[in-house]
Amino acid sequence: MARWASAEFCVYYAVLVAWNIVAFTWGYRQSEALTQQRPPPRWLRDGWLFGRFKDSSDLQWRMVCSYMPLLLLGFPAWAGLCWVWRNVVLGGSNSPKAQTARTLVYVASGLGFIFYLHGVHAAWPVVIAVLNYALARILGGTCVCAPAVWTFNVAMLVTCDLYHGFHNPLAEALLHSVSKYEGMLRWEVSFNLIMLRLISFGMDYHRMLSNQHGNERIAARSEYFRAQETERPASDYNLLLYIAYVFYPPLYIAGPLVSFNAFAAQSNRPQTTHSLGEIFRGFVRVILYFLGVEIVLHFEYVYGITQSDVWKTHRGGELLFGGMFTLNFMYMKFLIIWRLFRMLALLDGVDSPENMTRCVNNNFTFTGFWRSWHGSLNEWIVRYMYLPLGGRKYQVFSIWFIFVFIGIWHDLMWRWVAWALINCLFFTLEIAITSEFRSSKYAHWHAKWYWRHIICVCGSLNVILLVLANLAILHGFAGTYAWLQQALARANTPLGVLELLVNPMLYFYSGIHIMLELREEEQRTNQAKRC
After folding, report:
1. CB contact set of 512 (below 8 Å; sequence gap of 6+)
2. How many CB atoms are closer than 10 A to CB 218?
3. Higher local confidence (pLDDT), 163 or 104
4. Which residues neighbour 409 within 8 Å (Cβ) at sequence distance 6 or greater?
5. What is the pTM of this model?
6. b/e burial code for range 68-87 (CB count within 10 A of at least 16 → b)
7. Is the dihedral of CA 279, 285, 286, 291 positive or negative?
């Protein structure tokens, strides 16, 4: 029976509303204090709303704001030209010649796009992609293929980071003899995603030759996953389609990630799951999200505070307010970026996994959080790392390897190593505790009235650990320790303990009751999600 209108849930609603009012009021006051400084922080720039400053501390968000008009005009125009080529010029034919003609358009537009982005330095990712293709084609089907492809790509990732994209005088002179155009984005910034596509092609080709069948459980989830888990004909693993896949314009900059099998299937037969009306509504939602974030950034400068040294003046619950705001801003930023590019690819008939399958405030476990945050990367990890490393049977050990890889993949910086190790530590703890309480020893608890409350109390502690683990991205080892010291600075008095633990715990406890009821509602309506 639904609890939405019960007296118990009315109390939870009141707690959530009150806590959010307090949090936003605190953030607004902190922000207003910054505007009184002379000069104000450099990351506060003139906004477009009521003459107020805007928090411009995040580089990625500044780029989104700068290029949003170009993205909303340029890519739909490109997708329209591709549609005309496919359906008018080629008459919608699926003959081998027509497929090759479509692929050539993708190759030409992809190479042109990366030249526009990276200038003459686009030669580097093309050369690395061709070397990876040769390696996979030569070793595919042999026992050394997977180690060789992985070693090559990880080595390229580390090398291009250490040597700053091979920007040395000799290479510069050679490239500039061809063209002086430098582009607008360093190519090594994009190589993280390129590398994952290179591995995807190599492993999909290797599996096809090795007769390794797809995962039927995953394939049953949607049309996209059926395409991913169905091996392509050997003729599809050709250089043209491979180059089209690696440099496919709508998904090149930020994803979402698509496996080679899925891309190859959709390049021949565009997706039919999402209608044009759905895609249009998706664009409208993205624009509304974008405007919402822009408005908030004119009144709340908490993300800039968290990234600067101002947070070191805060104590106890104030740090948690800042941490929660930071995670929410990061969630909205990536939701807008990823969903925009996904909609742009859908216009061209290429589907990809949704990266944000749940709101960041609708998760209380590490397992659920990482399934629903950057979902396409999670699917990539499951397909190419988690299952080959033994799946659930060895997950306590494999998650350490996986998280360290993801940390290094993001950036060769100690703060990402800190993020990986702290997440692994808390993730392992969660696995151990949940495994224990799922055992038959506690089965009789699951039907008791108090079981839901036990989950909410434990989940509240887990959310605090989630916030701490993910703030390590900003602060690293030393900064995370300093953050904890600041948070505990007032915990030596009853009022300090109330501020640091009781208030946040009450907020998270109330929120997790809502989360559990949302999951039960999904079960009642047969819309249950995996996270």
Report:
1. 364, 455, 456, 459, 460, 463
2. 16
3. 104
4. 157, 192, 195, 196
5. 0.92
6. eeebbeebbebbeebeeebe
7. positive
